[in-house]
Structures are given as structure tokens and as C-alpha cells.
Known about the structure:
162 residues; alpha+beta
Amino acid sequence: MAKIKEIIDNYKFKFFFDEDDNRLNIKVNKGATTEEIHKFESEYGIKIPAELEDLFLLSDGIMLFGIEILPLAETKVFYDRGLLCFHEWGNGDFDCVSFGDEYPLNSVVFLDHSEDRTAFVIRSFREWILVVINEIGRLGTLLHPMDYLYREEKGLYLNVLK
């Protein structure tokens, strides 16, 4: 299985086009330090799941073909659900990595803002990155769960609202 660094290295010089023919690529930032990660974990009383920690060490926040993965300082913790938010959809919905008991450790979970409900998306953050890259390469976008109400394409979030 490819590690987070290997995945980013494999794609960092590639590009796709979005639905409006804008060029999309990966934009890497300076990585967080282990001290910054330990400070975050101490401050919030959690352990960041390993794959997300690997990404923070590689790049503290990253633009992944138009999808922003938040930097450590902007990451939100949802204690009651055992979820660590790494991506905001812009409408109050979040993608999160599980650190609690409700979902398997390191799995990706969709948190719906309007109903405060969650839905399992995929079993690991690493797999989420790979599937997201594939979907953006295929469709020029990552479809939000609501997009499936009026689009026929298949994608990662197809079953989230079911």
C-alpha cells in the first residue's frame, strides 16, 4: 500500500481540468513539526490518526486538485462524535477522520451540518485521498452528496444520503 508521501509524490507534478477547464494540481505547504502536532494533541486531548498526522508532517494543509485539506491550526475537533475535521465543503458540511469509538479508527466520515448526522465514507484517509484524486481526474470535481440528487455519475459520496 502506498503511503501518504508516496501518493503525493506520484501526483504532485500532474494536473487535471475542472468542469470549467481550469487547471487543477497539488499545492504543498511546509509540513507541521512534531512539536506542533504534539501541542495540538495535548491542547485537545486527542491522538491524531496516523495517516492524517503523516500528511500534516509532509504538508500542513494541502490543495489536492481543488480540494483543500485544512492545516493543523484550522482542524476542528468534534469530541462528541470522535471526529477530527480535515475538509470543509463550504456549506457547513465536513469530512472527518475518526479518532473515537463510533467509527473505525482512521476511517473517513461525512458530517452533515443540517441534520447533525454522520455517514461512513471510506475505511481510511489514505484510501480517501486516492479515490478523491481518481474522481477529480475522471469528473473534474469531487461530487458532494447532494450532487447525486440531480447527477447520474457515480462517485465516492453516492451512498452518503441513503
